[in-house]
Batch of 4 targets.
Target 1
Amino acid sequence: MERLDKILSGTGRWSRREVKDLVKAGRVTADGAVVRRPEEKFDRAATVLAVDGEPVDGEKYVYLMLHKPGGVLSATEDPKQPTVLDLLPPHLRRVGLFPVGRLDKDTEGLLLLTNDGPLGHRLLAPKKHVDKVYFVRVDGKLDQEDSAAFRAGMTLGDGLQCLPAELEVLESPDTGLVTLREGKYHQVKRMLAARGKPVLYLKRLSMGPIALDQDLAPGAWRPLTEAEREVLEGLR
């Protein structure tokens, strides 16, 4: 049995203060009956909770999409620099969220945040080969020789072996789309540096079946939709 305000705030849609206001306004029901107290306890698995008549998923896991801006770390905490968790409201910093994979401090784009450890592990497991797509701008001009080198797989000067990847050169030849099936440290930057075309800007557009919501401004976030969560379930 858990408090209603804990269950609803854990979905990422409302803070506990907002849940209190919803209850006060009579907008929350449990099995069809209006809830009168936010501290009332329920069995999340056995109770149909609803807000304004719409059922609310009371699962214990939270799944968020963040448009990571440059200048913040993909970490849960850091004594000196801001992290992606600092972009969230206080009630979501207390539910054990972590970033699924890391983006460099200066890299922008899609970052998934969850407290579902098993799912995070599967998304990052090398054997799963979950595709990650990046928009890149380089110092130089990309060409078909670069694309061929990516497709063949690359061994970098420090011995790092990279699986075959895709590089699509865009209309502006200093830009491209890179698709990786792994996520080694600074991999996109290291591969393009090896081609003599250092990265000036990098943004992750998608991870597996989840694409960055174009309506999310840098630094903004939202819960994953039910459809997005369902496709993630297919990766288990």
Target 2
Amino acid sequence: MLARKDLARAVLLVAACALLAFALPASAQVPQAAQQHRALLVRTAHAAWGLDAPVAVFAAQVYQESAWRPDAVSHVGAQGLAQFMPATTRWIAGLNPNLAAQQPFNVAWSLRALVTYDRWLYDRAPARYTPRERMHVALRAYNGGLGHWQAEAAATGAAQPTLAQVDAACGKARRAAVHCRENLGYPHRILVVIQPRYAAWGPGL
């Protein structure tokens, strides 16, 4: 009889913990390390994008790239919060004088580089797309190269391909098909899965 009561209590305890987890606000899923950089990211995003900057998207992207670890280094050599490859660090330093220092492990430099690169890519997405679609393009390009996305757009054969048509053409141009799962999943994870956690930080898409 006692064993049954203990089992019942255990089941109730597990159920209560599960309910509590679902009841936690999305902000509770934001790493503590991120909070110290929130104000800096907001200021940096506003400087590059204006007051309607999609701050929640940038915060989600930083989480996806490095989990907010300034010293992060990937197995292929990407560095810092924004996970810039050395070649991209050199390129963007030439694009923006404020990034000339080339300091991917510096938090301020890394956040400025991320929002600057996103702006550059966003501006090269088709203007006929919605803002969210243009960010989808920018994120795919950030992850896998703008040239690959443009080649896939051309591979559709359409004069003005839709976002879905270009996504469906992944792996049918210069990009190896083996990379499509990661590249297509990158904007989905940022915009759909992670972005809601940062809704309190500012606008999203």
Target 3
Amino acid sequence: MANHDRVSERYYGEINSEESHEATRTRIHWMCREATGKRILDVGCSQGITSILLAREGFRVTGVDLEEESIRYAQGELAKESKPVRNNVDFRMLDITQWKVKTLFDTVLLGEVLEHFAHPETLLIQIHRLLQEEGTLIVTVPYGYHPFYDHKQTFYAGNLAMCLMPYFEVLKLEVHHKYLCCVARKRRKTQLHMSPTLKQVTEWMQLDHLHFAEVEQNHLRLMKLRKKALDQAVEQVKRLRRQENVEG
């Protein structure tokens, strides 16, 4: 089953809720701000919105995705842009883990990609190869459990950082809406058996504590609203039954 991630449509508010629209825009704008250098690889580019936004600012972007429908949509959106923007973007349908290109990139974007890998090291080794020395890796993943059929990983601050550490130095971890957002730098050599420092572990725990307290508070508010709506519906049913009994 294909993923059909309709990220461009969510970005422009054409589908889903206002909350989804705002979360998508926040995540994509954050990724664009963190990009460095001039040559960008957008892995899992979906409908191409991030690639196009960066191209409008003069970046040279290669957007790749496995889904033919997504690449076709991205190319259609790119065709609406001015010639300078069109010249800055190359959309390709391919499997990034099998790509043999020798081109090196200044920044690689992994926007909601890692959670689809049962063995993320397969992808990370390839990204490490494709990045310039001290190149930038930008990662966003859903924060915590999301019940999507193709999500093979659930990420929190600690296990995302540990996943990246053998190949990249984690520079920044933030949470925006429901996304865990990370900026990392390519290591000169991979170090497969690295252990985090006490300071790093403490920072990751503090981040998770802060944001999961907020998640739990939001769930409690939602449960209270639903209980109130249910109580009101039950009372309405009782009134209707009493009215029926009186009229009968």
Target 4
Amino acid sequence: MRWDSLFDDLEAQLNEQSQAQLREEVAENIRIERATAELLPTLVRFSGHEIALRVSGGTELRAKLGPCAADYICLETEHSQWVIRCSAIQTLALPPGKVPIADQHGAGRSVKFSSVLRGLLRDRARCQIFSRDGISLAEGTLAQVARDFLMILVHPRDEYARSQQVSTQLLIPLEAIGWVEAKHLS
């Protein structure tokens, strides 16, 4: 009888030690996962959800998160689109609740910043370009997006980019750009 009690007690202690060791391993794995997390895979999980963010210069935006890449993110509302360099982002407010499961289809897209801007060029959207410091650099219609610069035709806000309306052509290095806002014409 005493032996049975002793062995039951030893078995319970061993079981409790195994449970404690498993809890410690799980906690350590969670710490490692959180410490090695990166911005892009985290943001990709929120694609399609509304987020709020603050960019350089204190501008605050609230819109639906679109495609993300290593150096920029895209936001969209009914009337505007933004292509924002990650280096211009100061804070991101993600939706409350559980973190969505990662979507492997959209993770880590390697579309270049200049390629996204070429999409705005094709749309002939009215764009406002901001520096990495949040200062407005130009407003008008994109005329060219090259490998490392863009050219924008500056013209009055309510006019089309016709030669008689264009006041100047500005060449802006892509490295100087913090974000671009494109307005949909209604």
